[in-house]
What we know:
The chain is α/β, with parallel strands linked by helices. It is 39% helix and 17% strand. The chain has helices at residues 18-33, 49-52, 68-78, 95-104, 137-141, 157-162, 174-184, 214-226, 232-245, 247-261, 266-269; strands at 8-14, 37-42, 59-62, 83-86, 92-93, 111-114, 116-119, 125-129, 154-156, 189-192, 198-201.
Amino acid sequence: MTEPALDLTIVVPTLNVKKTIRNTLESLAPLREAGARIIISDSYSDDGTLEAAAGLYDGRIDVARGNMYVAINAGIEAATTRWVCYLNADDIVFADVMLDALAKVDENVELIYGDIDFIDFFGRFLHGYAFPGPRHIIPLAASHICAISPIGTLYKKSLWERLHGFDTSYRYSADFDFLLRAFMSGARVHKIKQPTIGAFRLHGRQLSQNAGRPGLNENYQIVAKLGLKVPFYRRMTSIIRFKAGNFLEFLIRILRHRRLSGTSGFSECIAPPDYQK
């Protein structure tokens, strides 16, 4: 008997990402072979991005430059599948983990997320990162911490529609806003415990590397706009658990940074990373 096609659309927003797009799309190839649809939402790349991506996607939407989340919304709007997600054009997913999660998840679940790895520009493993269970996401968000990465995070299109998609008034942290609104709405969520579901590529061109940490500034705006209030003890308990759960990963991060750069890197590596690009 033939297995049913994977009921999933993955949107990849692109703008002059020739050097990384093929690696990203190749990580999605097993999902595509299983029936998933890959849509590139391109903002008029002129560096050969589309040529590099040739043969690895199913559809393309052209979107004006200026806001990545406009491109993501356009791609998801075009999706006709039950499940949707997006993946930045320099990150990767581990398709076997995603396939297993979709095969086993309860029918009523609306959002799936998991832990991730960090890699350097050339794909070398740097360190892993463990995210907390669903009950800690809102308390951490009240402290302006986005404790889910959009990498490998799947949600039903019906949830995206109910939440009216990503809020494009934000340029850096619309993921934080969307995921927080999903949790606050009571969406049924499943966290994959092991192994990691994808990898975040660290390099200097990410929007979150801009001076002043604009993503964090938007996090403050989002929490204020949503009127999120959580008792102090709940926020502190979740922060302590979150940091304790990643203590060894922080040490690995420091050691890997030192090995690659020849410096201790302690001051740079001790803070939790910002996932918004």
